[in-house]
Amino acid sequence: MAKDMKHYIHRLIISFTILFVAIGAKAQNADKLYEEDGLFNHLSVGLTTGLTGAGIDVVMPVHKIVTLRVGFSGWDIGDIKFKAINTATEITQMQMVEEDAVKRSQMVDKVELAVEPNFWNFYVMGEVHPFKGQPFYFSAGLFAGSQNFIHFRNTNAGALGFLYDANQKVEEYNNVFRTNYPPIGLKFGDYVFTADEYGNIDVRMKTNAVKPYLGIGFGQHFAKAHRLSLALDAGLLFWGTPKFLLNNDTEIKSSGKNSGISGALSWLKAWPNLQIRVAYKIF
Prior knowledge:
Distance between the termini: 38 Å
Oligomer: single chain
Largest sheet: 8 strands, antiparallel, barrel
Order of helices and strands: HEEEEHHEEEHEEEEEEHE
Structural class: alpha+beta
Radius of gyration: 25 Å
Number of strands: 14
């Protein structure tokens, strides 16, 4: 499914590029539309790269001091692997250690997890250029796209049944004896990722799909003396408070210990963006 989506997006980008080049070639010989007010009298296609990924966009003026930018950006870094501590090895309560399921889970100290960052968005932005002849502007708009910013999974698929069995025993013990033993799973800061009934860790860090954007920029989208132009944009995507969710959409609660991860997520309500844009003016 993901490969089909990427293939579709690539074809869409190529189609848009061909379309705008064709429009530009035709418009070269036509009168400029509303030239005095700067309404739709220019069009540029840009390639971008930055903290929201690489992408492509188009820009056109809609007023003397306002431009409209529409585009797509994203990145798919691939797997980042690390070893996570099995919390079963930290259990010392004798009544729990004696359980067979817990004994089996304590035989493994660490388990390899793969982290897959994947972030893509379509966006529309309005940019206000308040100072005539100056390359400074304000930008505001919306990004809409992926909700799952990071995906965690075990590299040995289906091999963590022992963690699931041990955690089931802990839950059963807590329900029967009114105890409050923490879950058994893999530690990520002050979070514990538990295995599902298929013996897998499947956790994602979820944000909002629609993300308002505010920023400032410096540079040109339409060069006056030549075709190529360069601009730099910096701002924030307001994506809400990120949450860790299991594959059944159950939110994973922090243990409250001082790892810094839960504290960082509590104020990381926005993703920073620093984007460089190289553009070609079609007309």
